[in-house]
Amino acid sequence: LAALLEHEQDLPSVTPDGHAMTLMVNTGLTVDTVASLKTRIGGVGLYRTEVPFMITERFPGEQEQTRLYREQLESFAPLPVVMRTLDIGGDKDLPYFPIEEANPFLGWRGIRVTLDHPEVLMVQLRAMLRASQGLDNLELLLPMVTNVDEVDDTLKLIERAIIELGEEGVEVRRPRLGVMLEVPATLYQLRALAARVDFFSVGSNDLTQYLLAVDRNNPRVADLYDSCHPAVLSALHRLAAESSELNVPTSVCGELAGDPAGALLLMGMGFRVLSMNGPNLPRVRAAIRRVSREAAAELVEQTLALETPAEVRAHLASRMQAWQ
Ligand code: PEP
Ligand code: MG
C-alpha cells in the first residue's frame, strides 16, 4: 500500500466525480521533509510559530525570526504559507516565559497573551512582514480568538507594523488575515468576524476540547475526547454551510483533516481546503481519489443521524472498509 500511495503522490486530489480538493500541510520546526511534498499541495495551511520558539532560550529577536519565516516562505513560494501568531499557553509553555495557572486551557493563551504583550507581537508581525517582502505568499492567522475586538486590536498592530516598516524603507503589502475557529464562541459570531478577516481556519482539536469540555491532553478523559462526537460533527456541518453563505474561504487544520474518514466527512460537509501533517497527506489523498463527493455527502447525512460517538466510529469504520 505504501508503494501505491507513493505512486499517487503526483496525482491530483480529485474525487472520481471530478470534485477538486486542496490539501495543505501543517509545519512547525523546520521545512523538514514537507518541502519534498511540494508537488500537488496547496501550500502551508498552518505554520505553528510557537514550535521554533520552544527550542530557544529566549524570545528570538526580529532578525532571527525574519530568517526563520523567510525560509518557510521561500521554500513554498509561490504557494501560500499561513503563519499563525504565537499560540503559547495551554499546553505550550516556553521555558523562558512560564505561565502557571490552575486551568491553562481556559486561561492566558494565544492571542490573549500576545495582545497583553504587544511588544512581543509587534516583533513577530514585523519579522513576518519583512520576510514576505518580494514574495507575497504570507497569510496571517490568529489563534484562540474569542471576541471580535481581539481582531480589531491585532489589525491596528498589523497596520502599525506596515507603517513602521515603510518608514524604514521596507515596503510590504498587507497580507490576507484569518482567524482560527476553535473557541465555540466564534461559531456564533461568524458574520462579525467575516466583516474583519479574509478567511477562517477551523482548529478541530481545540474546538473538540472546548465543545466537549474535555482536556485534550488528560489521559483520564481521553476516551471522551473525540472529534467525531455527534455534537462536534454537527457544529462543523453548520459551520461549513454558514461560512460558505458568508463567502468566507474556510479550511480545516486540526487532526480531523488528516484522518481519511474525517477528511471525507469534511469534504462531504463542503470544506474544500484541508491542512494536515505531511505524513497523513498520501492517505487522505488516496481516500479522496476513491470516494465521490456525492458519497461523502451521503456519509455526512448518515453520520449526522447517529447519536453516540461509538456509533459514528463504527459506521465510519464500516464505510471505510467498503471503500478500500
Ligand atoms: C487546533 O486547535 O485544531 C489546531 C490546529 O491548533 P493547535 O493544535 O496548534 O492548537
Ligand atoms: Mg488550537
TrEMBL record:
It is found in: Cytoplasm. Transmembrane segments: none annotated. It comes from the Bacteria. Belongs to the PEP-utilizing enzyme family. This is phosphoenolpyruvate--protein phosphotransferase. It comes from Halomonas litopenaei. The chain holds residues 421 to 744 of 753 of the full protein.
